[in-house]
Structures are given as C-alpha cells and as structure tokens.
Design brief:
- The chain is built from three helices and twelve strands.
- The protein is mainly β and 213 residues long.
- It has one domain: outer membrane lipoprotein receptor (LolB), chain A (Clam), CATH 2.50.20.
- Strands 7-8-9-10-11-1-2-3-4-5-6-12 form a twelve-stranded mixed β-sheet.
- A hairpin with a 2-residue loop joins strand 9 and strand 10.
- The longest helix is centred in the N-terminal third of the chain and has 9 residues.
- The two termini are 14 Å apart.
Length: 213
Amino acid sequence: MNDPRQTIGWLLLVMVAVVGGGAAVLGVSQAPKDVPLQKAVNNTLAASNYSQVVTESTPQGKQTDYLVFEAPDKLGGYVESGNKRTYVYVIGDTEYQSLTVSPTASTNHLVFYAQPSQGATTVDPTHNYLRYAATAKNITQTGSTYSFTLTQNGETGHFSYTVSGQYVSEFDLSVKTASVQLVISQVGSSPPVALPSGAKVVKAPTSPTSPTG
C-alpha cells in the first residue's frame, strides 16, 4: 500500500475507508467491568469486526482515516486530508485504491486501481498499534487507562491505551512533534466491507506514478 507521505518510524500511516462513504459511529458500549489491558487487546484483535478512526498529526499536516476491519482478511475505508479523500480497500490479497476525489463526491462511479496486497492485518492500524502492549514494561494504570513509554531507534514514544469493558476503545501515541489517536468502536457490529456499488476496477498502472497523484 502506498503511504501518502513519509513520517517517523513509530507512525504507521494507512489509507482506508468506511463502506458507503460514511464515517464510523463512535462510542463503545461500556461493560459492567473493565478487563485488564492485555485481555482487552486480545479480545479486540479476536473480534469479527470493528470500526476505527485514526487521526494522525505531523509537521506535514493532519490526516484522518475512517475504516472498518472485517476478519479475517478485509479492510475498507477512506483517508481524508484537507479537501481531499482517497478510498482504499484490502480484500484478500488485493488492494483497491481510488483516485483522489472531493469529500462530497459520489461513491457510485469511483474508479479503483487493483494491485497485490500483503493482507488486511498487515496494514490495519489496530493490529499494528495494539501489539506494542505485549512488549511494554513499567506500565502505569490510572482507572481504565494504561500508559508507558518505549524507545526505538533513538526516539521515545509515549503510549496510552483506554479499556472500555471487554475491548480497547482508544489508543494514543505521541513522539516529538507527531501524534496518533486511534478510536475503536462498533466491535462485533460494524458494517461488512465491500467495494461501493457501481465501482469500476482496473489494473494499476505499471509506472512509478501513484494513482493518487
């Protein structure tokens, strides 16, 4: 998957979209009792599906991804930056990326470029960010929020996970002048992932020029 820009090693930028062009509905139902962090991580990653909103801020600008992960191998949504939106779906071993369009453009006649993909779990933000919880040491817990720091390649990341009932509902990462906020919702009740109705699929061009320009 072609990242829209280069950034520091901690930040894992992806381009994805919510089915039908609608944003994920935020809010996870609160269970009577919160489970421990690692249990919540395991429950979230084992879920049949979930919605997620990823807000990434770097010196180059701000970007928000709206996406749905559907086990075992589907991811779909869009990335929005300023007045531009790009739709991307990963279904099995194929990625489908649209041309960049206006946020108000209809999804009924989008053209998608198909190319091989390493798989949905490889680029899914939740899978990538939640895995750090298993390697953390000296975790500080305040209520349902767990915090710790990790240093990688000389850079220190400040990590924070919030547990709501059985699942992780929010993840925050900050390092130097960059930050990521991941909000997870609709666990087990997200819409199915599929290309928009009426979409046209063509083979991705072989030139090094990205279809998103």
